[in-house]
Protein: MoxR-like ATPase
Amino acid sequence: MIHPQPQRSAPPGPSLAPVQPSPIEPVLFEVKRLIVGQDHLLERLLVALLARGHVLLEGVPGLAKTATIKALAQVIGGKFGRVQFTPDLVPADLIGTRIYNAKNAEFMVELGPIFVNLLLADEINRAPAKVQSALLEVMQEHQVTIGKETHRIPDPFLVLATQNPIESDGTYPLPEAQLDRFMFKVLVDYPSYEDEVVIVERMTGVHVTLRTLLSSDQLREFQQRVDQIYVDPHVVFYAATLVHATREPERHGLGHLKQALLYGGSPRASINLVAGARALAFLRGRHYVLPRDVADLALDVLRHRMVFSYEAAADGVTADTIVADLLQRFPPPQIDLGDNYVA
Structure:
């Protein structure tokens, strides 16, 4: 059963302007001078930056996941940090700890490597549960508690985590609560043959030096501009419908998914769909969100938030097939944005 659509409110401000090149496009082109064949990944990383989200990357070794993140950090400026997650890592290695200073006879706080603008958590699933839980507060609240003191993380702040899907020895599954903190889970695939030829030529040729095109202040300004992107109530309705259908599929005409899904997306999924769609609209040069922006992000937002049954695994049901069914049942609707403009 689908709830009635809300009444549309007119978009604030002047009439719709034509699509303009996004001011953050130069960042994308600069990173592409080094990184080849990862357009989807680069777009999602920029969307997460603009929407203040975190990204989990999954792919086999050698697909330039770490190189892409380091290249992006170099182009946007700010402070970059990397933590190699291992089974012997402890929370203090990540957030910091209190150290006794014998000279002054008092404790002092030594801040950990998490106090950066872009944190690369390499092979995050190799760290034990205590370290995973230490990330929960910082990813959601952008602060760290050491002893009785709370320390703010630099702004902007983004966690880019990687994990290897083909090695399970010495790994720890990420808790559902932590997975839900990631705006996107992006699967990084092998490049095409043509892209691989270019990659080899570029990596064995003249070294590419990337320029820093943004400062932290400029990135914060872009984030504030994204916050002003207009979201029609129909877009919010569409995002909520997609997420709610993962929790109660039979109410939305998707009864064949009921046995496959144990748990669906949380309300944070709906929030991230709308927030990410705002950033994607900004990246595409618009100051308003379209339902297709939500649909384009649906798989990356939902794939790590759904828990499947054993029957689903036996039948080969995956997040990709679930989201495909959702989008077939609920394709992006056309909405009237005013001034006789229908999109």
In short: Residues 6-15 have pLDDT under 50 and may be disordered. The longest strand covers residues 96-101. The radius of gyration is 21 Å. DSSP finds 13 helices and eleven strands in the chain.
